[in-house]
Write a structure and sequence with these properties.
alpha/beta; Helicase, Ruva Protein, domain 3; five-stranded parallel sheet; three-stranded antiparallel sheet; 16 helices; 8 strands; binds adenosine-5'-triphosphate; binds magnesium ion
C-alpha cells in the first residue's frame, strides 16, 4: 500500500462515519447525562437513601431486575446527583471475596492488600476511608454501591454471607458515631435468592427495587433521544419505531436497542445512505452472529459438540425437531475417538444450557406408553453454528451433503433416462406392430 491508497482509505472511512455527529451517545459503557423515564424506581431509591434524614437508616437496598433495564445507570445517576458521598464498584472483575473488598478499597484510592493481611484489616481500613471521606465533604451519608453483586457468591470458600454481615456491622458502628452508611446491591437476582445466613437476613429488612424490562414505548424514547444526539441527520421515526419494536419484543433491553441503532447506522454509513428498515434487519443478523460466536467460543468443548450435533442433524436432514436420544447418538458419532464422552444425563443438561442461551428451543412430546420426552430445534442458521463451533470440521459436513445431493440428482436422472428408453422402445415396437 502506498500513501495515496492510505489517503483513499482514510477518505472512505470519514465518509462512512459522516452519518454520525457524536458516536459517544451510542456507547453503552458511558453513563448518560440524562435518564429517560424510570421515575418511580429513582423516587424509591431517593426515598430509601434519604430516610436517614428523618432518623431511619436503611442499611441495605437490593436493586434487581432484567439485563439492560437501567439498574447500573439509574443507581449511578441518582448517587452522583445527591448530596452524598458514594463509591460505585463493579465486582465482576473480582474472583474471590477478598478480591471484592480489594476492589472497593482501590475504588476509594487505597492500594491492594495481601491475603495474609486478612479481611478484618481490610474492614478497618474501609471504615477509616469512609470516615475520612465524610469528614472531608461534611456529608452524613456514604453510599456503597456493589454492582454485579452475584460475583461475591461465586467464591464458595470465601464466606460471602460473612462479608455482608461485616458490612452490616460497619453500618451499625458508624451509626453510633452519627455517620450513616447504606449498601446498595445491584444484580439480576433479588437479595433473598442469595445464600445469606439468618444474622444477615434479620438485619437487611426488605428494601428492594425491581427494574422490569422496558416496553416498546420506553425503548423508543431512549433510542429517539440517542439518535437525536448522535446522528448528523434526522432518523426516520418509522425506522426508530422498528428498532424499538424488535428490541422490546425480544428482550426489552436498552443496551441491545442502542447497539442495534449503532450497528444499523454503521451499515447505512458503508452504503452512504440513510438508515432504512433493511439496515436494521441486516444489523440484527450481524449482532446475532457476533453474539453467537462469542457465546460459543466461551463454551466448553462438550457444549460445542452438543451444538455441532444439533447443527449437523438439522443441516443434513433439513429437519427441525430432534429428540435427546437422536442428538446423543449424533454427539457420539462426531466426538473424536480419543476424547472422553460425557454421560447421557450430562448431555441432556447441556441441551438445556443450549436452550437457556437462546440457540435452541425445546418442546415436550408424548411418547405414548413410554411417557414424555424432550425435543430440540435450532433457532439460528446451522451453518453459523457449525462454523463457530468447529470451523475446520464444518466444511466437510457441507461438502458431504453436497456430494449426497448431487449423487441423488444423478441417480434420479439416470432412472428417468432408463425409463424413457424403455418407453421409447415400447413405443417403437407398438409403431412397428401398427405397420409404420
Ligand atoms: N432510562 C434510561 N435512560 C437512558 N439510557 C438508559 C436508560 N436505561 C438504560 N439506558 C442505557 O442502556 C444501557 C444499559 O443500561 P444498564 O447498564 O444500566 O443496564 P443494567 O440493568 O445495569 O443491565 P445489566 O443487568 O446487564 O448490568 C446503558 O448504556 C444505559 O446508558
Ligand atoms: Mg448493570
Amino acid at each position: 500500500m502506498d500513501k495515496k491508497e492510505l489517503k483513499k482509505i482514510v477518505g472512505d472511512v470519514r465518509k462512512q462515519n459522516s452519518i454520525f455527529s457524536d458516536k459517544s451517545y451510542l456507547d453503552n459503557l458511558s453513563t448518560p447525562e440524562s435518564i429517560i423515564g424510570r421515575e418511580s424506581e429513582s423516587k424509591k431509591l431517593v426515598k430509601f437513601l434519604l430516610s436517614f434524614e428523618k432518623g431511619l437508616v436503611v442499611p441495605l437496598i437490593s436493586v434487581y431486575g432484567r439485563s439492560g433495564s437501567g439498574k447500573s445507570t439509574i443507581v449511578q445517576f441518582v448517587c452522583k446527583n445527591l448530596d452524598v458521598d458514594f463509591c460505585y464498584t463493579n465486582l465482576r472483575k473480582a474472583k474471590t471475596v477478598f478480591g471484592c473488598i480489594n476492589l472497593i478499597l482501590s475504588e476509594l484510592g487505597h492500594q491492594n492488600l495481601k491475603n495474609a493481611q486478612g479481611i478484618n484489616t481490610a474492614f478497618t481500613i474501609l471504615e477509616e476511608l469512609i470516615m475520612q471521606s465524610l469528614d472531608k465533604s461534611g456529608n452524613s451519608l456514604f453510599v456503597l454501591c456493589l454492582d454485579e453483586f452475584d460475583t461475591l457468591f461465586y467464591d464458595k470458600r470465601g464466606k460471602p454471607s460473612d462479608f455482608v454481615y461485616k458490612l452490616l456491622v460497619l453500618v451499625e458502628k458508624l451509626r453510633t458515631l452519627k455517620k450513616y452508611l447504606c449498601i446498595v446491591t445491584v444484580s439480576n437476582k433479588v437479595l433473598s435468592e442469595f445464600n445469606l445466613d439468618d444474622r444477615v437476613v434479620s438485619r437487611v429488612g426488605a428494601s428492594e427495587i425491581y427494574f422490569d424490562s422496558y416496553s416498546q414505548n420506553d425503548v423508543l424514547k431512549i433510542i429517539r433521544n440517542r439518535a437525536k444526539k448522535s446522528f448528523s441527520q434526522k432518523i426516520d421515526d418509522h425506522v426508530l419505531n422498528y428498532c424499538a419494536e424488535i428490541s422490546s419484543s425480544e428482550h426489552g433491553d436498552a443496551r441491545r436497542a442502542i447497539d442495534l441503532l449503532r450497528t444499523s447506522g454503521e451499515l447505512a454509513g458503508l452504503e452512504n445512505k440513510e438508515i432504512s428498515r433493511q439496515h436494521v434487519d441486516d444489523a440484527i443478523a450481524q449482532l446475532q452472529k457476533n453474539q453467537i460466536t462469542t457465546m460459543i467460543s466461551g463454551g466448553s468443548y462438550h457444549f460445542k459438540l452438543a451444538c455441532a450435533a444439533l447443527a449437523r442433524l438439522t443441516f443434513v436432514n433439513d429437519e427441525g425437531w430432534h429428540s435427546t436420544s437422536e442428538l446423543f447418538k449424533q454427539y457420539q458419532k462426531i466426538i473424536p475417538p480419543d476424547s472422553r464422552q460425557i454421560s447421557y444425563r450430562r448431555f441432556s443438561e447441556m441441551l438445556v444450557e443450549l436452550v437457556n442461551s437462546g440457540i435452541a428451543v425445546s418442546q415436550t412430546i408424548s411418547k405414548g406408553r413410554h411417557g414424555y420426552g424432550s425435543q430440540f430445534k435450532l433457532t439460528v442458521d446451522p451453518d453459523l453454528i457449525g462454523n463457530s463451533c468447529f470451523p475446520d470440521w464444518w466444511p466437510s459436513v457441507v461438502e458431504s451433503k453436497k456430494k449426497k445431493e448431487s449423487a441423488a440428482i444423478a441417480s434420479k436422472q439416470l432412472k428417468s433416462l432408463y425409463s424413457g428408453r424403455r418407453r421409447s422402445s415400447r413405443f417403437g415396437s407398438l409403431y412397428r406392430n401398427l405397420g409404420f
